[in-house]
Amino acid sequence: MTFWVVQLINGLAFSSLLFLLSVGFTLIFGLMRTLKLTHGAFYALGGYMGLSTIALTGNFSLAILVGGLSMAILGFLQHKYLLSRFHGTPFSQVLLTLGLWLMYDDLVLVVWGGYPHRVPPPDFLVGSLTFADITFPKYRFALIILGVIVAFTVYLIIEKTKLGATIRAGADNEEIARAMGINVNKAFIFAFGFGSFLAGAAGVLGSPMLGLEPATSGLILPLALVVVIVGGLGSLKGAMVGSLFVGLVDNFGRILFPDLAYFTLFAPMALVLILRPQGLFGRK
Known about the structure:
The protein is mainly α. The chain has one domain (2-215). It is 75% helix and 3% strand. It contains eleven helices and two strands. It has helices at residues 2-32, 39-57, 60-81, 90-112, 138-160, 162-172, 174-179, 184-210, 216-231, 236-256, 261-275; strands at 128-131, 134-137. The protein has a two-stranded antiparallel ribbon with strand order 1-2. Strand 1 and strand 2 form a beta hairpin. Helix 1 (2-32) packs across helix 6 (162-172), helix 9 packs across helix 10 (236-256) and helix 10 (236-256) packs antiparallel against helix 11 (261-275). The longest helix has 31 residues, at 2-32.
């Protein structure tokens, strides 16, 4: 019983991290119809920026802020000067962001080297908690709580604010929203900046658990894509459910069927695409 509970908490911690990464990705993908393949690179770059911040200051909270803000600025510049030129042309977006992804990975190699790093968690989250003979790292419990807080905050923004209404209108039908005088561009800027901020912050938050290496972006991006595909484009509920699905299936798959880990993750995704191409909570 202890084994299953520990693995469940492991999966939930990983799901929280994936939610932080994928909620911005699904907004960008669903609202702007932009396949931003640099999202995984933003996760890695944000983590490395956090690593350098901790090395200089020893402040984990500041590292999260620096990692997130630096990626928000980079994401805004990338959208304004590059991706905005190819709005509505998916193939050009794929080629552009693929090239940028490779450039960012090379930048990581030049600046931080090709060997792996692990960021230490903050001092107050070092160690483990024990409950009913189950011992588990404090940091992973904190990730689960943080994921719930971010999910609730994003829900309030999307469902209860004027900006959220603009985002939902743009995701449903951009052309009609523009024709009605809705400022969809404001929603675009927010979605890109907010999504990039969360990707960079997730890179810092995930580094004590997963570590950092030059291949980090290529390892994390497919998981974010699965979350978006399973949950549905532009759906907050889809991002939540997709993150839970991927986090739990990936964790239990690697533990129970290590030789079939990718099969156990991508086979259900293929079934979702066959039975419901728009995702569990996406719209046609």
